[in-house]
Design a protein that fits this description.
alpha/beta; TIM Barrel; five-stranded parallel sheet; four-stranded mixed sheet; 41% helix; globular
Length: 296
């Protein structure tokens, strides 16, 4: 179904594995310094700001790996190439713990701001960095800042990716058209399930200074989890180790994971595992087209 104004694209052919009624992916964007340097390269000279970002790989990732180990689940870690180059041992620790490593740009660039040629160069550079640091070839990609371009799907398919996790148009996975009759799996996300908005404050760079309590944030996420399970949807939580890796926030995340584990019929999986399942389903790809405006 491709009607841009029309109906739910997953009504025909979609089903979760037998014995399950919904799925959840716990994902982590290991941005470290890259997210800030992409916004403001001059921030490299602000040591306190850089230390705020370094908290992710230095302290947050180890703490979050312990949370995942205690709860016995596997997560998906989206890693910019620059992070892999700067913190290769940390990326190997994620790999060695058995978690999925996926692609998240090179220097956390907005794909929407790049030409197709420049976007491809960034994609290839990120792949090379992940390979050099940890010997991994990712199957999935998430657009930095969730700013995919209209060229992204085709580039991802051409470079052998299985899935994208950057779009926000529905509550379940689907096949996203990638041009010329090809497709890849889309695993939808949303700002409300991202920890950046409630937790991150950096003067002159991000946030208002109103930093939320993990009690309130986790309660909000739990509401969304419960309702997405009731709807038979996919819950994709996005955490950043420099934010949710802090002590009370990691404890809140662990409580949320345990709550999810107690839900009957909820499949907790990596993004790659969900995408592999969706590939088996008889779903017609959604082939969205860029809106065309007439200003006459």
């Amino acid at each position: 179904m491709t009607d841009a104004a029309g109906s739910e694209p997953l009504a025909s052919g979609f089903a979760w594995p037998a014995g399950t009624r919904a799925a959840a992916c716990f994902t982590f964007d290991v941005d470290a310094e890259s997210a800030i340097l992409a916004i403001d390269p001059a921030s490299a000279g602000r040591r306190s700001v850089m230390s705020h970002q370094a908290y992710g790989p230095r302290t947050g990732v180890p703490r979050l790996l312990r949370v995942l180990d205690r709860t016995a689940i596997k997560g998906t870690f989206f890693v910019p190439g620059y992070t892999a180059e700067r913190w290769p041992g940390v990326i190997r620790s994620i790999r060695d713990a058995g978690h999925e490593i996926a692609h998240h740009g090179y220097l956390h660039e907005s794909a929407a701001a790049l030409s197709p040629e420049a976007e491809e160069r960034v994609l290839v550079r990120g792949l090379a960095a992940l390979d050099a640091a940890a010997g991994v070839r990712p199957s999935g990609w998430r657009a930095p800042m969730w700013e995919a371009s209209w060229s992204s799907a085709g580039l991802l398919h051409r470079h052998g990716f299985r899935y994208d996790s950057s779009l926000m148009d529905t509550d379940r996975p689907y096949q996203l058209g990638a041009g010329n009759g090809t497709s890849l799996v889309e695993l939808p996300i949303h700002w409300s399930l991202d920890d950046w908005e409630p937790y991150v404050y950096l003067p002159d760079l991000s946030g208002s200074g109103a930093i939320a309590s993990p009690v309130d944030v986790v309660a909000r996420w739990a509401l969304e989890l419960d309702e997405l399970v009731a709807e038979g949807g996919l819950f994709v939580l996005t955490n950043h180790p420099f934010a949710s890796g802090r002590a009370s926030r990691a404890a809140g995340l662990e409580a949320l994971i345990r709550r999810a584990q107690a839900i009957d019929g909820l499949w907790i999986a990596t993004c790659d595992e969900v995408a592999r399942w969706v590939e088996t389903l008889p779903i017609e790809p959604v082939a969205d087209e860029r809106p065309v405006l007439s200003l006459d």
